[in-house]
Amino acid sequence: xxxxxxxxxxxxxxxxxxxxxxxxxxxxxxxIMIMMxxxxxxxxxxxxxxxxxxxxxxxxxxxVGAYASAVLLTKAGLSPWIGMAAGCVCSLALAVIVGxxxxxxxxxxxxxxxxxxxxxxxxxFMVWDFVGGAVGIYLPILPQSFSNFEFHATKLPYxxxxxxxxxxxxxxxxxxxxxxxxxxxxxxxxxxxxxxxxGISIRRYKLYAFSLSALLTSICGTxxxxxxxxxxxxxxxxxxxxxxxxxxxxxxxxxxxxGPVIGAFVFIPLVxxxxxxxxxxxxxxxxxxxxxxxxxxxxxxxxGLSGLFARGTR
Amino acid sequence: xxxxxxxxGVTKRFGGLSANQDVTFAVDRGEVIGLIGPNGAGKSTLFxxxxxxxxxxxxxxxxxxRDITKEAPETASRMGIGRTFQxxxxxxxxxxxxxxxxxxxxxxxxxxxxxAKAKDVAELFGFSAKxxxxxxxxxxxxxxxxxxxxxxxxxxxxxxxxxxxxxxxIQEVRETTDLVRxxxxxxxxxxxxxxVMEGIMPVADRVVVLDYGHKIAEGPPKEIxxxxxxxxxxxxxxxAKRRAHRPVx
Lengths: 314, 249
What we know:
The complex is a heterodimer of chains A (about 325) and B (about 250).
Chain A: H1 2-21, H2 25-50, H3 59-76, H4 80-102, H5 108-127, E1 137-138, H6 156-178, H7 180-190, H8 192-197, H9 202-228, E2 230-231, H10 233-236, H11 239-252, H12 259-278, H13 285-300, H14 306-309
Chain B: E1 3-14, E2 17-28, E3 32-36, H1 43-50, E4 58-63, E5 66-67, H2 73-79, E6 81-83, H3 96-104, H4 111-124, H5 140-153, E7 158-162, H6 170-185, E8 189-194, E9 206-211, E10 214-219, H7 221-226, H8 228-235, H9 237-244
Parallel strand pairs in B: 3-8, 3-9, 6-7, 7-8
Antiparallel strand pairs in B: 1-2, 1-4, 4-5, 9-10
Helix pairs in contact in B: 3-4, 3-5, 4-5, 8-9
């Protein structure tokens, strides 16, 4: 336990020091993406890994987070930080509205329903002219400052903001894991009837988990909008994002705190590097590489990679 | 003695088939009730109605004077009705201690408290040496005991045990009857559903017999084993007639 904590502090120290050694934009961008996907996968893992309820709709919260802050900034001139909070509120409401009826559905049907929700939101934002429709939103270039959430000279501030969000997500997940909620989710995943027999309301605890999942994803959505400064429905409500979150958690290890982190560190470099080196003529090859990775993991370590690093944990 | 559970004309139909028909009986606090009957008599259905996993089609079920007929199973559990399952439903991937903790969380919200409470319960049920074992790695008999421990940890006033003795060897049956006695001595009310009569007779204060969904007899075990209708239900009409000419053992 102490050894794990020690390793964790070294890990954090390395992350803090990383930009000092890598001064080019790409390595910094790479780690920002790794951490962003790690945060979203940690969110996905709370409901999908611990609770066993596979969701393909988490991209919805990413999109809502991105659009909430972008719309408030362009239409009302509000700081993206306020937008981030607004995005969280919208995502939370959406999680309850979607989750309440959908948690009646068992197993695969829930997953299918969440795909539908994602596609509906994508369609809706495509034709909604007020938020830019299919063209999307170009965020205004403002003087760089923390309150404007825009930095043009260097990616460094983005890096540290993302690092803070990443540590927050790890903290939240660690708390969940050790609390009643975490135990209940694992019980629900293991045997729903057994869980009900000891007074657990399955729907309520899945809603809690789904809401946390939505919050973490929504924060990343706002970050993404401010980082790229351009959003459109195709890049934010993309089903592929949800699938990637699922793949990352699977590769890393379902229902484990560091599972999604390890998954993101393996998977995202693959995504970014194939994009950079293969470019447009490499289209399709990246998918083959993902599949290869999945197959290798499924054969050699079906429980995920995380056990390789932290022995002795569950 | 005060009454804890009352069934009033409980009926459960599955489509055209009625598994329970107009079943009425009451249970006092601290009693051990045996619910028996031949295969397909509707024991498990009635059991599931009482802990709200099934919703009774007709009649009323009152627990501590409150109508629970239409409640959700988790509500029934929160009110103090604990249960086990005929086919064990322990949390297979979790440890013995964690299984019991899941029960304890109902009354002890904090992980530390639930953990401490679960350890106490584990000791009571003889699991102290196996706290870290995965539930799936226990024997069936142990898994059944773990289910009882999990239900007990919720602080239930009444436990419903569904065939805890089925498939156990003689030694294990004896251990289970001891356990039932201990639970009763702690003031719990127990309803035992059993297919086999041997296990239940020495511990039950009263036995309710079901056949084809109807209650055909109710009373102390001694009277029940001599009851004409019960013998007929278990062994057939012919045997009952033959037996009537011989003195009761």
